[in-house]
Design goal:
The chain is α/β, with parallel strands linked by helices. It is built from seven helices and ten strands. The structure holds adenosine-5'-triphosphate (ATP). Adenosine-5'-triphosphate binds next to strand 1, strand 2 and helix 1. InterPro entries: AAA+_ATPase (IPR003593), ABC_transporter-like_ATP-bd (IPR003439), ABC_transporter-like_CS (IPR017871), ABC_transporter_ATP-bind (IPR050166), P-loop_NTPase (IPR027417).
């Protein structure tokens, strides 16, 4: 996970903009075209999910936005600035938490504050305690990651990504390894955090239901080569609840997205 000082998105421009982005990986003697002609805008304060089967290039998109991967063609900008390394104002949560087992939960959340001046560290410590409280980990500040469940570890990871109040949150299938009950609970936590903070979120998932439940828009991706097949606006009321998954409106979004995958000859949960 990486989190640095927040920078406001540039007025009038989408927070994240991708234009004609292609990515070719050199694998031995052959080239693998991972992405082709990605055009994507994520508006300031939007929750956009990238949904698609394994290998369609979701993580590559996210890594290009995070400045962890260079593009082969096209341009990526964050907050109006071209991306040529990790942009400022960015928090990232990965599928596997990257908590350090020899540090307590609070010390892990405080990692991004390590090189801050002492005065700011004091303020960030209060922020860390607040965040841990907000996700139900208030009583676990002095415990070690190995004493926590997978869901609790991922909650701590989210707190760490939010510590410096990044404007943009990139989440690479953060709940993919969790059981269904924990995943439901973390989806609710994330909906609440997003409602309270209105971060711009770029979220990766294989799950159609998760994408619909969380997002303002879902970018449906197709593989070989990775591309965006369709962007679906999710116009369900907020606050969103788990019970909404049983409504005809939800079912209709789900059926539509499934039909896109069927047309593409691919599948998702
Ligand atoms: N560093 C790399 N070198 C070579 N090929 C890579 C590299 N990273 C990704 N790829 C290939 O690029 C394609 C897209 O990978 P990517 O991880 O972006 O897909 P994904 O949709 O995120 O998959 P998953 O859902 O399984 O995580 C895949 O075919 C993958 O094998």
């Amino acid at each position: 996970m990486h989190a640095v000082q927040a920078a406001p998105a540039s007025a009038g421009l989408p927070h994240v903009r991708m234009r004609g982005v292609g990515k070719v990986y050199q694998t031995g003697t052959t080239d693998l075209v991972a992405l082709t002609n990605i055009q994507l805008d994520v508006q300031d304060g939007e929750f956009l999910s990238l949904l698609g089967p394994s290998g369609c290039g979701k993580s590559t998109v996210l890594r290009c936005v995070a400045g962890l991967e260079s593009t082969t063609t096209g341009d990526v900008s964050v907050g109006g600035q071209p991306v040529d390394g990790p942009p400022s104002g960015l928090g990232v949560v990965f599928q596997r938490d990257v908590l350090l087992d020899w540090r307590t939960v609070l010390q892990n959340v405080m990692l991004p504050a390590e090189f801050e001046p002492a005065e700011r560290q004091v303020a960030l410590r209060s922020k860390a305690l607040y965040l841990l409280q907000m996700v139900g980990l208030g009583a676990y500040c002095d415990r070690y990651p190995w004493e926590l469940s997978g869901g609790m570890r991922q909650r701590a990871s989210i707190c760490r990504a939010l510590l410096t109040d990044p404007q943009l949150l990139l989440m690479d299938e953060p709940f993919g390894a969790l059981d269904e009950f924990t995943r439901d609970q973390l989806n609710l936590d994330l909906l609440r955090i997003w409602a309270e903070t209105r971060k711009t979120v770029l979220f990766i998932t294989h799950s159609i239901a998760e994408a619909i439940l969380l997002s303002t828009r879902v970018a449906v991706m197709a593989p070989n080569p990775g591309r965006i097949a369709e962007i679906v606006e999710i116009d369900l009321p907020r606050p969103r609840t788990l019970a909404m998954r049983d409504t005809p409106e939800f079912a209709s979004y789900s059926a539509h997205i499934r039909s896109v995958f069927e047309r593409l000859g691919t599948g998702a949960r």
